[in-house]
Amino acid sequence: MPVLPNILLGFLGGQLFQRALYDQVWYPYLTTEVGSLKSKVSALERQDAVTFYRSVANAPGNLQMIMMIAAATVLISTLGQTLLNPAKRTANLLSFISFFIATGLYALKVHPIIRDIGSAGVVRPKADVEAAQLFHIALWQALTGMSLVTALLLQVAVDTDPEEAELQAAPPRTKKNRSSKVE
To answer: Which of 11, 51, 124, 130 has the most neighbouring CB atoms within 10 Å?
Structure first.
């Protein structure tokens, strides 16, 4: 399998896990009722996250386009490898499904909330609404990240062929110089 899908998965994973810096404050409260979240996380942490997600929402369209092209390339590549490589069809299919789930979660759950935060402008919603939005972003991005890491691990497993690894690990043979005479 080509290296490009792995590089693109790494790029997309980096973009996603950069956001975990702001999402990690919500992880201890994943089982907490959404209505009580505003008292659990400070206003400063919520404001930092809102500011970050506004900048993500207002990012240049080129970055969004690059991310969509990268995701489409990975989807097409993993689907193509599923169809073309019968020996590793199961792993390729699982990788495709995992990345398809990650893409769907991001497009259907995370992106609309980020777009809502960005379109609000300077007006902030009530603290409980804001906390619920940030909580849902953290939750769905965590699930997206798990699906993306699963796809990446499956891609790495598909790329590792034991016979190829042996060939690459074996040192090249050298010719013996028989023409030298000892005097």
So the answer is: 130
